[in-house]
Design goal:
18 strands; 7-stranded parallel β-sheet; single chain; alpha/beta; globular; 17% strand; 19 helices
């Protein structure tokens, strides 16, 4: 039986290496082997911030199985698999070699390594066949699928449309000029994003509906005009240009039927608020939570009562003063997290006046006792390549801003349905990002400081504290 073979081989591999401490290796390998043998749907939830050593437990049953597979990975994970994990399997035992094929045509290869965009194309073109899906990064699935489905129109697409329909050139130029004035007149957004309402696009859609032989990108844009998709523009101020973007609010609807009559193993570092139906519409036959063992030492948490809220005038001054105290005397790396560009840069400037060149912003080579100020997304992307911090300072909790057009459209969609958009959408995503960002602290034994007054001043702050458990309150700062 596949489960027994995977258990035996993985146990021998781990004993031979003698360095793995994750407690669920054998359990995960048996779960994956069972799912592959039965061809059912299995969801495995891992604790956010889990050590990536669990990957070996996924790969061993994949190597021993005879089932045709499509393994869906992001770019960084693909690189890790090809450069670290697959050579590790081969070095441990030649029988565990896992030959993977990349590209548009896998031929008769058993294991096909795909990106999320390649998965969608293969499914739409009927090239997946009877392959079971293995998706080891479920926490990225929603965003990656949305990116893969995105329709993007650049300046050259407008030129292509104008050349295809010279008789409509004057109308197209007028509509392009109208949209340009709409985009360029908006207040500056840090990422250059400008929300577009359906009425902004309506004249263009009406014109395109009268034209035949549209270029492929424009055909897709016209076909996805329903309210389940949303549009925005990205302004490129230096070039005095802009691009038009359109994405689905819920990518699950766009891939309905992908899992029909197909086995799937979905694993991810998922928060407790994540519903399985949000993962390709998955209705798992088996759902398993693999948690970390109880920690010997709780996470030290500095979060004073009666801190000001981020929208108060005194917040920037409070943030600078508290950050100075937190950095003073710290021997290791301090990471300061805030998505608000103005607030973060002002804080970095204030800290640099006190601590000099130790303070950097989004730098991948900070000093050993440096202060790294960065956005949440930047830290989550780069933390694996940076030294473990001694301290993480949360200047602003990672609650998505409604200034982001996609977030605002999703919130409005939930609001129209009478649903609790904050607790269904913004809060679970924020908690998952927080848990991923502080995972290194638990391994390093550092401390976490939350200077956002909403933690203590809002009712939902208790959910943040629950997500950080176990933790130990630091009521005052002591010298190290």
């Amino acid at each position: 039986m596949l489960e027994a073979r995977a258990h035996h081989q993985l146990k021998a591999l781990l004993q031979g290496e003698g360095s793995e401490t994750w407690p669920h290796h054998l359990t995960l390998s048996r779960l994956v082997a069972r799912s592959l043998r039965r061809g059912d749907h299995t969801l495995v939830r891992l604790v956010p911030g889990s050590d990536p050593s669990w990957l070996i437990s996924l790969l061993v049953p994949l190597a021993l199985s005879d089932a045709p597979l499509a393994v869906v990975v992001s770019g960084p994970l693909r690189q890790r698999l090809l450069q670290v994990e697959l050579p590790r399997l081969l070095a441990a035992d030649p029988s565990l070699a896992l030959p993977c094929v990349e590209g548009a045509d896998p031929g008769r290869a058993r294991v096909w390594l795909l990106s999320h965009g390649e998965l969608l194309k293969a499914w739409q073109q009927g090239r997946l066949g009877e392959r079971q899906l293995v998706i080891p990064e479920a926490e990225l699935l929603d965003g990656q699928l949305r990116q893969a489905l995105e329709i993007r129109l650049e300046a050259e697409d407008w030129e292509q449309l104008r050349r295809a329909h010279p008789q409509a050139e004057s109308s197209l130029l007028e509509l392009h000029g109208r949209l340009s004035r709409r985009v360029m007149a908006q207040p500056r957004h840090p990422d250059g994003l400008v929300a577009l309402a359906p009425e902004d696009e309506a004249p263009l859609r009406q014109l395109l509906a009268l034209l035949d032989g549209l270029p492929p990108t424009w055909r897709r844009w016209l076909a996805h005009g329903d309210p389940s998709w949303t549009s925005w523009a990205r302004r490129h101020s230096r070039l005095m240009q802009w691009s038009l973007h359109r994405q689905p609010l819920d990518p699950v609807q766009a891939v309905a039927g992908l899992l029909d009559q197909r086995g799937a193993v979905v694993l991810g570092q998922l928060g407790t608020g994540t519903e399985p139906s949000g993962l390709l519409g998955l209705e798992p036959d088996v759902t398993v939570d693999l948690g970390d063992p109880p920690l010997a030492d709780p996470l030290p948490l500095y979060a004073p009562w009666r801190q000001p809220l981020p929208n108060t005038p005194c917040y920037a001054e409070h943030l600078l003063e508290q950050s100075r105290r937190l950095v003073l005397g710290q021997p290791g790396l301090t990471v300061v997290l805030a998505d608000d560009d103005g607030l973060r840069r002002g804080l970095a400037s204030g800290l640099a006046a006190e601590f000099g060149s130790r303070v950097v912003e989004e730098c991948t080579a900070p000093e050993s006792n440096g202060v790294l100020c960065c956005r949440w997304s930047w830290w989550l992307e780069h933390q694996v390549r940076l030294p473990l911090p001694n301290q993480v300072v949360v200047a602003l909790l990672p609650i998505a801003s409604l200034e982001d057009p996609l977030t605002a459209a999703q919130v409005q969609h939930l609001r129209l349905q009478g649903r609790d958009w904050f607790r269904e959408r913004l809060l679970p995503d924020g908690l998952t990002r927080l848990q991923l960002a502080v995972a290194g602290l638990r391994r390093q034994g550092g401390r976490l400081a939350v200077l956002d007054g909403r933690l203590r001043g809002r009712s939902w702050g208790r959910h943040v504290l629950q997500a950080l458990e176990p933790w130990l309150a630091l009521n005052r700062l002591l010298p190290h």
